[in-house]
Amino acid sequence: MAQLGPAHRDRIVTHLLELPLEDRRLRFGHVPGDASIAAYVRGIRFFRDAAFGAFDDTGRLLGFGHLAFSASDAEFAVSVNATARSHGIGLALVGRASVHASNRGHRTLAMLYLPENEALASLARRAGMQIVCDPSECRAYLSLASPTPQSVLSEAWREAIAAVDLGFRLTARPRGRYICLNRCV
In which domain, by residue range, is 146 found? Predict the structure, then answer.
């Protein structure tokens, strides 16, 4: 799990464009066209918000989470490629976002989703979120702990390790299924 920045915009666009139309509808609440997805990604304010990604060994973005901050809210949206589901990527992205939001002083992480989005409802339940639904949308809330020096340092340490790992994934040349940093056996 790595925090993403402006240099990852192309990978985010590719990930979102790979989503089937129904997944796009469930992720955005409507079916955005390719140009709308590109505009959405261009509009991510990395200096204010946070974005996280899960990558495979070839550097392909398998899961993407966007944590949008306002003065009082921390709202999270997530998508995982269909071929990568049921491997804990969505739950890991929610966990990463909750730590990040908590360490920035937010007390609640929120996710909004369509009532028919069973996958997100299941993810919210697994994450221990409180769910409130009405006919047009559901909201899931997770209470966040107060930040501590340990939680801030732990997040920084994990992010540094993730950045190094991602750098290897994006620059190493895979032989077969594995990335060989020294020699492949």
Answer: 2-174
| Enclosing H/E stretch for 140 | strand 138-143
Q: What is the pTM of this model?
A: 0.85
Residue 124 lies inside a defined structural domain of this protein: yes
Query: Considering its fold, how many domains does the chain have in total?
Result: 1
pLDDT digits (tens, 9 = 90+) for 117-146: 999 999 999 999 999 999 999 999 999 999
Among 33, 62, 47, smallest CA distance to 5 is for 47
Cα distance between residue 39 and residue 121, in whole Å: 27
Query: What's the confidence (pLDDT) of residue 168?
Result: 75
Residue 5 burial (CB count, 10 A): 13
In this structure, the dihedral spanned by the alpha carbons of residues 165, 23, 32 and 61, taken in order and rounded to 10 degrees, is 10
CATH number of the domain at 45, please.
3.40.630.30
Q: Residue 180 falls within a domain, yes or no?
A: no
- Find all residues with CB under 8 Å of 83, minimum gap 6, and list them: 62
Q: Decide: 73 and 111 in contact? Cβ < 8 Å.
A: no
| Burial zone of 123 (CB within 10 Å; 0-12 exposed, 13-18 middle, 19+ buried) | buried
